[in-house]
Amino acid sequence: MAEFGKGPMRPTTDAAFTRAARRVALGFQDRAARLGMGPDETANLALAALVEVVAGQLGDPFRAIERLRDAADAFEAQCLADGGKRSAPGA
Length: 91
Known about the structure:
68% of the residues lie in helices and 0% in strands. It is mainly alpha-helical. Helix 2 (39-58) packs across helix 3. The radius of gyration is 15 Å and the shape is globular.
C-alpha cells in the first residue's frame, strides 16, 4: 500500500482507514485552530461539513440521516465500552 501523500489514498485495512480518518480530522482541527476558532465553532463547522459530504455522496438526505445516526450509535457504543474514556484523535 502507498504511503499517505504518495499514490492512491484508498485505505485497504481497518488500521489504514483509522489512520486516514485521523489525519483528515487532525488537519481540519489544525486549520480551525489557525483560524482562531474555538471548540464549539470547530465542532459546528466539522458537523456541517460532514453532513454536506455524506449527503452529497449518498445523494439522498434521508440516507445521509440514517448513516449519521448509525455513526453516532457506533461511537456511543465505543464510548460506553471504553468507560467514557475516549478522547479526541491525537489527544
